[in-house]
């Protein structure tokens, strides 16, 4: 980008509480148009009724990734720039995957603040499990002062923890674990391990993904922070038996498809895993029929480990708004994608997907997020 570009109106469509109202009070330079997410009864899984009404007017969109995807997939959309409220763009890509040609649109995303929240989730869940907070609560309900079940526990400085995903979020999880004097392992891509690229020395043990089994046999807790990519989907499905040695507790705050449900359930039932703390799932909401709800030693939360706060994502949006109007590159602009296909379509550098050769494939291709380093 080079020339000045005026943004007069921004359409907001998000589940983030009070996003549009707070944005209105944060700037008077733009008109903020909030669109309801109420679904069209004739198309309950598609674009909302109000968004469809305005779709041909929307040039600038501030929305959740699945909603951005729905708008971009609409044939009448005229979006020039879309700012996502979340870091992960899986839902966006899923929505546009069937298009014959990628939309020529600028995408930027929110990343700040997630590491702190997700690290606190991990530490909080570990402390709650080790100190048996669930038993404490049950005893309180029964007005029972017998604490004998609570006498035996492990301090965090006696525990080893393995981190899958060593990007911004993973490194913050590591920092918080080291602050509790835990022994920290991290698994990274083989090429990153070989190059030593940005490998934080506060980690006690690094392993390449090709030797992931070594880490699985040595950790008390295993935390997944990886995004969903073709290389990460099902990564743990045939490996959880290696956790049997230490009865590892699996914490998933990355993406649910790191392991298929049947493999996870089998690992818990067979005692390979000592339990699981799950915030993300293959299918969300988690169906009421899922066996995971009733398995012993399983804690389930509804994808809340890294909730987006309105103030944080508005701060990023306003910074990007100024950059956009000044014709400069945006913060977290256009996450690079690795795309594989026989058909190649030339696009410009402002496209959603950019490759050094200036070409991307059609969206039936496999899209791999590379912006979040594993």
Automatic annotation (TrEMBL):
<dbReference type="InterPro" id="IPR006140">
    <property type="entry name" value="D-isomer_DH_NAD-bd"/>
</dbReference>
<keyword id="KW-0520">NAD</keyword>
<protein>
    <submittedName>
        <fullName>Glyoxylate/hydroxypyruvate reductase A</fullName>
    </submittedName>
</protein>
<feature type="domain" description="D-isomer specific 2-hydroxyacid dehydrogenase NAD-binding">
    <location>
        <begin position="124"/>
        <end position="305"/>
    </location>
</feature>
<keyword id="KW-0560">Oxidoreductase</keyword>
<dbReference type="InterPro" id="IPR036291">
    <property type="entry name" value="NAD(P)-bd_dom_sf"/>
</dbReference>
<dbReference type="GO" id="GO:0016491">
    <property type="term" value="F:oxidoreductase activity"/>
</dbReference>
<dbReference type="GO" id="GO:0051287">
    <property type="term" value="F:NAD binding"/>
</dbReference>
<dbReference type="Pfam" id="PF02826">
    <property type="entry name" value="2-Hacid_dh_C"/>
</dbReference>
């Amino acid at each position: 980008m080079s020339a000045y570009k005026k943004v007069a109106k921004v359409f907001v469509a998000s589940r983030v509480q009070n996003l549009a109202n707070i944005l209105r009070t944060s700037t008077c330079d733009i008109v903020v148009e909030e669109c309801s997410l109420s679904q069209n009864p004739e198309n309950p899984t598609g674009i909302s009724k109000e968004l469809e009404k305005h779709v041909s007017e929307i040039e600038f969109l501030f929305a959740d990734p699945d909603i951005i995807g729905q708008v971009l997939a609409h044939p009448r959309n005229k979006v020039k720039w879309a700012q996502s409220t979340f870091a992960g763009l899986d839902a966006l890509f899923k929505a546009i995957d069937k298009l014959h040609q990628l939309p020529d649109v600028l995408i930027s995303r929110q990343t700040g603040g997630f590491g702190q929240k997700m690290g606190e989730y991990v530490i909080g869940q570990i402390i709650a499990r080790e100190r048996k907070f669930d038993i404490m609560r049950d005893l309180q309900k029964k007005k029972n002062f017998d604490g004998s079940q609570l006498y035996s526990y492990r301090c965090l400085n006696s525990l080893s923890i393995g981190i899958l995903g060593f990007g911004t979020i993973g490194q913050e999880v590591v920092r918080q674990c080291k602050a509790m004097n835990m022994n920290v392992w991290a698994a990274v891509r083989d090429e990153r391990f070989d190059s030593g690229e940005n490998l934080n020395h506060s980690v006690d043990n690094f392993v390449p993904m090709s030797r992931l089994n070594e880490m699985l046999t040595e950790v008390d807790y295993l935390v997944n922070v990886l995004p969903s990519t073709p290389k990460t989907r099902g990564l743990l499905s045939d490996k959880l038996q290696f956790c049997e040695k230490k009865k590892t507790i699996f914490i998933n705050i990355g993406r649910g498809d790191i392991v298929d449900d049947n493999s996870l359930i089998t690992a818990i039932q067979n005692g390979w895993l000592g339990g699981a703390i799950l915030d993300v799932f293959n299918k969300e909401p988690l169906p009421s029929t899922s066996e995971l709800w009733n398995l012993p030693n399983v804690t389930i939360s509804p994808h809340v480990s890294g909730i987006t706060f309105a103030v944080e994502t508005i701060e990023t949006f306003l910074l990007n708004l100024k950059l956009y109007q000044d014709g400069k590159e945006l913060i977290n602009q256009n996450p690079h994608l690795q795309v594989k296909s026989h058909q190649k379509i030339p696009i410009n550098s402002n496209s959603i997907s950019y490759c050094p050769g200036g070409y991307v494939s059609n969206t039936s291709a496999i899209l791999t997020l590379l912006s979040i380093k594993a």
